[in-house]
# Entry
Amino acid sequence: MTKGCLVVVSGFSGAGKGTLMKSLIQKYDNYALSVSATTRNPRPGEEEGVSYFFKTKEQFEEMIATDALVEYAQYVGNYYGTPKAFVEDKRKEGKDVLLEIEIQGALKIKKKFPDALLIFITPPSAEELKNRLVGRGTETMDVINKRLTRAITESEGVENYDYILVNDDIDTCTEKLHNLIQTAHERASQHMDIIEEIKEDLRRIEHV
Ligand code: 5GP
# Structure
């Protein structure tokens, strides 16, 4: 069985990544969404082990020390990281693993796994971004402003991504994302084993 793809989805806070991930998983079977560990406090409605694994700083640092994370980063004063075991197991099962992570983590993933697909999601405009953050009603104005400032920094590394998707309509964006991932399965690097097999067979045929 071919290993599943590692798909990194990043984007400005408020770009609609969470909704997009949910929509993708509801529509298609072959995806596994990685649940990150974080030291930030749960928002109302967030569940342990579903939204995040909520950790203390000490617990998180223990995960770093025991090499239990594929990558981790700090974002607006908190740690966020991707647990390793889930990613490895699901990819072995042939599932495409989705990581919804910020840019520092995304670049670490690209270095460790050059085959990873990096996709950046953006809302159509800055105004729309602010409206979505305010409309969510889960953060104070102070945190919203920090996230908007952080968005400027995030846009500076965006040229390292493979694709940028504008999320102005969730269904269209879901389809585009799915198609990009499916196309990534056909990358040459994913098919080297079949080429090797054919080469072997050709050599054998040549010698009969
Ligand atoms: P939020 O606090 O809004 O849930 O997430 C803040 C930022 O952290 C988002 O950009 C989100 O994609 C990112 N993030 C979530 N989990 C991880 C992770 O495991 N690693 C990294 N590097 N970033 C993450």
